[in-house]
Design goal:
Largest sheet: 4 strands, antiparallel
Protein name: Crp/Fnr family transcriptional regulator
Distance between the termini: 37 Å
Shape: globular
Number of strands: 8
Order of helices and strands: HHEEEEEEHEEHHHHHH
Domain Cyclic nucleotide-binding: 10-114
Pfam family, one: cNMP_binding
InterPro entries: cNMP-bd_dom, cNMP-bd_dom_sf, Env_Response_Regulators, RmlC-like_jellyroll
Length: 194
């Protein structure tokens, strides 16, 4: 659980006692490649911290086509946080691209700690702030950056992703077609862009 304590310390500078309380709330769970961790329409009780592996969040449109909303790599939080905050069913599916090991933390128990422990409250505030900034950045990227710029940014942020995730999933995440992604990749090679 030292990995989890280091993760907690990187998020918020909380004391060792509070850090240990969060570690004590966590349970390690394992999922196999293609396992669904959170299913759209289900109420969930846990949020997760991905210890190892790669996950994705996605939804299906009315025509049954899936749309990738996010990729998750080691030491990132995952699960439908919006569903937990509103106590409503999850809007997205979360599943594993690879075998994954996660820390599962019961959200209600975590909220009880937030109410009782100021250090937890500080950490929760920082986590929510980071989530807002991530979504703000994604909205900005989709609004302002062209597809090539979004692809280059994704490669910079997650350099090994292309080795582990099919190209059509990356295209979906970038909100482009696989054909467009293929052209972008070809142009990058031809122009020697990195």
């Amino acid at each position: 659980m030292n990995i989890l304590q280091n993760f907690i310390k990187n998020i918020a500078d909380i004391d060792d006692v509070s850090s240990q309380k969060l570690v004590d709330l966590a349970t390690i769970v394992n999922f196999k490649k293609n396992d669904v961790v959170v299913r759209a329409g289900d109420l969930q009780s846990n949020f997760y911290i991905l210890r190892s592996g790669i996950m994705k969040s996605y939804y299906f449109d009315k025509n049954g086509k899936s749309h990738i909303r996010n990729f998750f790599t080691a030491m990132s939080t995952t699960g439908d946080i919006g569903a937990l905050l509103t106590n409503k069913p999850a809007k997205l599916f979360y599943d594993c691209f690879t075998d994954c090991e996660l820390y599962a933390i019961n959200y209600k128990e975590f909220l009880d700690m937030v109410d009782k422990d100021h250090e937890f409250c500080k950490m929760f505030s920082k986590v929510l702030s980071k989530i807002v900034l991530i979504f703000e950045s994604k909205i900005y990227d989709l609004s302002v950056l062209n597809a090539t710029e979004r692809y280059l940014k994704l490669r910079q942020e997650l350099p090994d992703l292309e080795k582990l995730v099919p190209q059509y999933h990356i295209a979906s995440y970038l909100n482009i077609t696989p054909t467009q992604l293929s052209r972008i990749r070809k142009d990058i090679v031809l122009k020697n862009i990195s």
